[in-house]
Backbone:
């Protein structure tokens, strides 16, 4: 009788251990899935305090151009909705050797302040209006920047410098996503998933003048 009780107790203990192991494994899998989304609470707060800077070497254009204009193009899934040009950037007829583009969201969730600086110490600021992620269960203004790699520079042509795009809602995994390349070229951008999936985005670029 005592042996039967002991065997029953051992079987019950084994069953409890199996259930515990399964639960632990499920919890680990859930964590792995969550990491595929950048829309965690910590990352949302980090985005709100974002002041990252991208810097571009444009020194090769100093001897062949007289100035440059920064252009901001706004898009949704139907195409370009707006285009704005900032005043010519530089000192006189000399363009800078480098450009830096910084992003800050410290004042409002729905506005990002973009700061343009050069090695000439001149600077310019403007605000971009952000839109909440469509279909998300709560109001979230989640955007990320993706730089373009400058393989070649030309005159009187729009040269993209950075994509600043909105996350999209993944209804299958119930999370916000912004997945794709960490750097773009104009050629790669034609097939990039960012432009297929992002509901709202900006492309900031430059036009060099002869």
Residues:
């Amino acid at each position: 009788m005592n042996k039967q009780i002991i065997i029953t107790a051992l079987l019950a203990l084994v069953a409890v251990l199996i259930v515990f192991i399964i639960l632990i494994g499920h919890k680990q899998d859930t964590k792995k899935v969550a990491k595929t989304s950048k829309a965690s609470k910590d990352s949302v707060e980090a985005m709100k305090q974002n002041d990252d800077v991208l810097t571009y070497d444009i020194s090769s254009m100093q001897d062949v151009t007289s100035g440059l204009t920064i252009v901001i193009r706004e898009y949704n899934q139907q195409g370009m909705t707006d285009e704005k040009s900032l005043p010519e950037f530089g000192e006189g007829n000399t363009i800078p050797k480098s450009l830096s583009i910084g992003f800050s969201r410290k004042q409002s969730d729905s506005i990002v302040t973009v700061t343009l600086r050069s090695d000439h110490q001149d600077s310019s600021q403007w605000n971009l209006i952000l839109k909440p992620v469509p279909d998300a269960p709560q109001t979230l203004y989640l955007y990320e920047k993706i730089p373009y790699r400058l393989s070649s520079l030309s005159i009187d042509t729009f040269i993209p410098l950075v994509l600043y795009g909105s996350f999209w809602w993944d209804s299958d995994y119930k999370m916000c996503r912004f997945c794709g390349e960490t750097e773009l070229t104009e050629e790669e951008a034609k097939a990039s998933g960012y432009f297929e999936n992002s509901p709202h985005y900006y492309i900031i670029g430059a036009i060099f003048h002869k």
